[in-house]
Design a protein that fits this description.
Number of domains: 2
CATH superfamily of the largest domain: Periplasmic binding protein-like II
Number of helices: 12
Largest sheet: 5 strands, mixed
CATH class of the largest domain: Alpha Beta
CATH topology of the largest domain: D-Maltodextrin-Binding Protein, domain 2
Number of strands: 11
Shape: globular
Order of helices and strands: HEHEHEHEEEHEHEHEHEEHHHH
Strand content: 15-25%
Oligomer: single chain
CATH architecture of the largest domain: 3-Layer(aba) Sandwich
């Protein structure tokens, strides 16, 4: 009789929904939700953006359930933000100069964006002016009359260079060469150009490092007047010092310059809970980020809080990131 009673009890429990077909307990809160795929467009495969974002994606994947992230090769910041605006991607890498144009509806963007929020700071993007070591520049105006790599067609650096060199009064005197970042170092090596000017890019440029082991170069240190003029022209830039020995082979001296910065921008409609967890993983595992790439030592909470003051290049924070910063007492 006891066995019969127990059998009926088990049957009743199963009919009441207390189990599954294999007898395992059923969790009412469990879901079979597919992970959110976060493919992050960066830049070319040999560039710094791709390397950094590969490391960031690994940290997110290690600490955030429900998200599967990866770095994606792309044509760079302009394409990245256009794809973010269209909803094709959910998170994108971009530099502050492009973000400034994007948020203000300036070329090459047709209108200001309302669909994007800020996620986090990644790294400084110092302006770099390079010439052969035996032909060092004494001022930025020395670029007049020279063949200069000024950025590829449609690249944000091209727009910045036009504004900067126009302000210096030498735009029409520079023989500007439209070359991509990887192509400029090769052109300098072969004597096709006399100098490179690339404002607001990552340091070091992976594509340049190998070439500059073969030819000695001079990295120009800006004077105070040039620095002040550029900051007034581009309010999202700040004065920056490249430490000795931390740029390219043979540059064993400090270099004064100006720098923008690189960051991640995220869709405004990205789920708040997952954005919160991604921010938590990003800010709470600095050792893992730095072990992925030394440049990620700058991907700190302090640096993110610092650039939040630059309204020209910062939209509103994503609610998930804002929630994390409020919990930590960094926002009122």
């Amino acid at each position: 009789m006891i066995a019969i009673a127990l059998t009926f009890a088990l049957l009743a429990s199963a009919c009441a929904g207390g189990g599954t077909e294999n007898g395992a307990p059923q969790n009412e809160n469990a879901t079979n939700k597919e992970p959110i795929l976060v493919s992050i467009p960066t830049g070319n495969a040999s560039g710094l953006a791709y390397s950094l974002t590969s490391g960031v994606a690994n940290v997110i994947n290690s600490h955030v359930q429900g998200v599967s992230a990866n770095a994606e090769v792309s044509a760079g910041s302009v394409e990245n933000l256009k794809r973010l605006e269209s909803g094709e991607v959910k998170l994108a890498y971009a530099d502050s100069s492009v973000a400034h144009s994007y948020l203000n509806g300036e070329q090459p963007f047709d209108e200001a964006s309302a669909n994007v929020r800020f996620f986090a700071f990644i790294s400084p993007a110092p302006s770099q002016v390079i010439s052969p070591m035996d032909k060092p520049l004494q001022s930025l105006k020395d670029l007049a009359g020279k063949r200069v790599g000024i950025g590829g067609p449609g690249a944000p650096q091209l727009t910045l260079n036009e504004k900067l060199l126009t302000e210096l009064g030498i735009w029409n005197e520079v023989d500007g060469q439209l070359l991509t970042i990887p192509d400029t170092s090769n052109a300098l090596q072969t004597g096709q150009i006399d100098a490179i000017i690339q404002p607001s890019i990552g340091l070091p440029q992976v594509a340049w490092t190998e070439t500059f082991t073969k030819i000695p170069i001079s990295l120009y240190s800006w004077n105070d007047e040039e620095i002040q003029m550029t900051i007034e022209l581009f309010p999202y830039m700040t004065e920056y010092t490249i430490p000795a020995g931390e740029s390219y082979p043979g540059v064993e001296y400090e270099v004064k310059t100006v720098a923008g910065w690189n960051g991640y921008w995220i869709r405004a409609d990205f789920p708040e809970e997952e954005a919160y967890e991604m921010a938590k993983a990003y800010f709470e595992h600095p050792d893992e980020l730095t072990s992925a790439h030394r440049v990620l030592s700058t991907a700190t909470l302090e640096n993110t809080l610092s650039v939040l003051k630059q309204k020209e290049a910062i939209p509103a924070l994503h609610p998930g990131v804002e929630k994390y910063l409020r919990e930590k007492g960094h926002l009122k």
